[in-house]
Amino acid sequence: MPLRPQEAAGVGQSPPADAPGQAGERVFVGLGANLGDASATLADAVAALAALPGTQLVRGSSLYRSAPVDAFGPDFVNSVVELRTSLSPAELLAALQALEQAHGRQRPYRHAPRTLDLDLLLFGQRECITDALTLPHPRLHERAFVLQPLLEIAPEARHPRLGALAPCAAAAAAQAVVRLP
């Protein structure tokens, strides 16, 4: 039976985010899939994230089901993980894209169904806009399928410009997101 991300991460058993001995920057990655065995794919992705060089998996959220936003297709299974990493944002993005490719991700059109979608949500309190990467993720504060799992594992999470993200969840509450057992 595949591990759910929180089982792989040991939710409830992880040290606090700023515990001594945890090197690297505090990072949050959103995971989603709506093709194939999405739950198993997310568990595989969590294990692969934990194995990235210079990276430690701190904790993972529960799994959540949500309808696609601005798209058609099957419902998504989503989660969020917290990492500590010494990788740069560009290096981590490249690793995330390589993991998506390894899981058969194709991009035939914008918002196409996905075998695996990995989004770099927050990289500490860094902000950047390049052709390849925008930090923080430009829509994280608008998406219940990101906010609910993120706030489950980091209720104090902050956006560098907007501040606390918890109030954003109320604004996105109309989006149907269901925590899976």
Q: Percent of residues in helical segments?
A: 25-40%
- What is the count of helical runs? 5
Work out the count of structural domains: 1
Which structural class should the secondary elements be placed in? Answer: alpha+beta
Q: What is the CATH class?
A: Alpha Beta
Mean pLDDT over all positions: 87
The CATH architecture can be given as 2-Layer Sandwich
Q: Any chance you could write out the topology, listing elements then pairs?
A:
Blueprint: H1 5-9, E1 25-33, H2 38-50, E2 55-60, E3 64-66, E4 76-85, H3 89-102, E5 117-123, E6 128-129, E7 134-135, H4 144-153, E8 158-159, E9 163-164, H5 166-171, E10 177-179
Antiparallel strand pairs: 1-4, 1-5, 2-4, 3-4, 3-10, 6-7, 8-9
Task: Describe the protein in words.
- With 181 residues, the protein is an alpha+beta fold.
- It has one domain (5-11, 22-179): 2-Layer Sandwich (Alpha-Beta Plaits).
- The chain has helices spanning 5-9, 38-50, 89-102, 144-153, 166-171, and strands spanning 25-33, 55-60, 64-66, 76-85, 117-123, 128-129, 134-135, 158-159, 163-164, 177-179.
- The model is unreliable at 1-20 (pLDDT under 50).
